[in-house]
Amino acid sequence: MNAIYADRYGAPQDVLRIKEVDKPVPDDDQVLVRVRATSVNRGDYYQLTGRPLFLRAMMGLRLPSGTIPGADLAGEVEAVGKNVTQLQPGDAVCGARRGATAEYVCAKETAFVRKPADVTFEQAAAVPVAATTALQGLRDKGRLQAGQRVLINGASGGVGTFAVQIAKALGADVTAVCHTRNVELVRGLGAHHVIDYTKEDFSKRGERYDLVLDIAGSHSLAATHRVLTAAGLHVLIGGPLPGILIRAGWTKLTKGKRTIFFVAQMNQPDLIVLRDMLASGSLRPAIDRCFPMSEAGAAYAYMGTGHARGKIVITI
C-alpha cells in the first residue's frame, strides 16, 4: 500500500514522500480500515519537523519515532478480527490512530465510531483530535455550564472552530477572539460576540468570563487572569508551544489553580458525543483546504504558516 512517509526531521515539503509499505493485517481484536481522508493537527506538524528541539526527547532525538504522520482519519472497514463485535466490513467510520496518512490502518474497534451518513469522509476526518480537544477543554477541564460566559482565544483554527460550536451547544454565552479575516467565519459558527484582536485587546476591555479557553496563548497569565471572574478558570491548550510549556511549568511550580494545561485523551465515548452532534447538525467542521495525498507536504507546510481557517484535510 502507499503511505506518506518521513524518516527524518525537516521542512514538510523536503522530507515527506509517498512510499510503498506493507499493508497491515488486523489481529483478532482489530479492524482494518481503508482510509479515505485524514487531517492535519498542530501536534502532527511538531512531530514532523522536530521543532521545538526539546520535544525530541519524546519524539526521537535524532530520527522521528514514527515515520507515517497523522492521527485523524475517516474511511471504510475492510476486514475485522474474530473478536470484533461493534463493526463489520463495509461500515463507514471515523476516529484516530497514529500513522493515519496511509491507504490502510489497523486499530482496535474502540478507536472508531460509525460516520453519520450525510457527513462526508473529508468532514468526518476533520473531527477526532481537534473536536475532542475542544470538548474536553470546555466540558471536563473548564467545567463549562449553561448560562456561563466563555471567551475562546484563537477561535478560527482547528480546535477553535469546534470550541465555538460546542460551547454554544453547552448553553454558554460565547465570545470568540480572532483576526479580521475570520470574523464572519466564527460568527457563522455561532459565536455571540466576536473580538477582532487586530483592533482590540480582550484583556483590556473590562469584561469578565467564567472560562477562558486559550488556544492562541497570546497573553501572559496575569493578563488572562484579569478577565476571569472570582471562580473563573483559564484552560490553556494551544498557541506558541515553548511559551505555553514555560507558563504551564510556572503554574505547576506555584501550585496555581486558575490555569489548567492539558493534552486531550482520545476515547470512544467522546467520539460518540461528537458523532451525535455531527448527525444532529449542531457541529459542522470548518474546512479550509483539501489536499490530495500527492501534496501532503504542501498540506503540512500550510499548517506551519499558522494561518489555516479551521481544518486542513488530505484525501487518500
What does this structure look like?
The protein has 316 residues and is of the alpha/beta class. The chain contains eleven helices and 15 strands. The strands form three sheets. Strands 3, 4, 5, 6, 7, 14 and 15 form a seven-stranded mixed β-sheet that branches. The chain starts with a strand and ends with a strand. The model has no long low-confidence stretch (mean pLDDT 91).
- Which residue ranges are poorly predicted, with pLDDT under 50 across at least 5 consecutive positions? none
User: What is the C-alpha radius of gyration, as a whole number of Å?
Assistant: 19 Å
Mean pLDDT: 91
Structure classification: alpha/beta
> How much β-strand is present in the residues?
25-35%
Note the overall shape.
globular
How many H/I helices?
11
Compute the separation of the termini in Å.
Answer: 11 Å
Largest sheet: 7 strands, mixed
Order of helices and strands: EHEEHHEEEEHHEHEHEEHEHEHEHE
User: In percent, how helical is the residue content?
Assistant: 25-40%
What is the total tally of β strands? 15
Give a concise summary.
The chain has 316 residues and is an alpha/beta fold. 30% of the residues lie in helices and 27% in strands. The strands form 3 sheets. Strands 3, 4, 5, 6, 7, 14 and 15 form a 7-stranded mixed β-sheet that branches.
